[in-house]
Amino acid sequence: KEYRGNDQSWLYKYAPEVNERFKEVIKYHNTDFPKAIEGYLGIIKDYQHDDGVLAKAYYYAATVYSMMSQEAEAEECCEKSIECGKKSGNVRCQILSMIQFTVLKLNRMNDALAADYVYEALSLAIQNHDEDLLHTIYTLLAQIFEAAEDYETSIQYHRKGIEEFVKGYPDAATAHVTTYGARILCSS
Known about the structure:
Elements: H1 16-26, H2 33-46, H3 51-67, H4 71-88, H5 91-107, H6 111-127, H7 134-147, H8 151-168, H9 179-187
């Protein structure tokens, strides 16, 4: 059964006023990091009763901390987002936070922990028909195997990542296909 684009039952439903708050804060992502963090901490303070909202606020806060190169804070927010995502059923933010946590761990050369999180993200994405994120997950898996010098497995995951990308974005120019994955395939 093809779920892409028509079954979004796995998406957490936010109240309209929460969406407005997020829209307000997202404006500052590229212009004013401290103001963005302040906005997310405000949402976290006001929505202690809603783990689904907290999962998203922590995920976005982690993103901003990551852009500020504050990795310890980013990791802490990812962990909180994953925890809140599990409690609330906000699977999308849980998967996104696992992907982000994987990247942070890879940056710190902690490949074993990165692999645990990315495999869990893969399993959740498949279970919840969230195909949109599969190409990113497969590309991360490819990077982990490449770091372990298992190039054959790495290439298999890059191929899967590219297949998923093309499935999800059939109109995209091939230039947009993870150039990283494409480069590895070309060199093999």
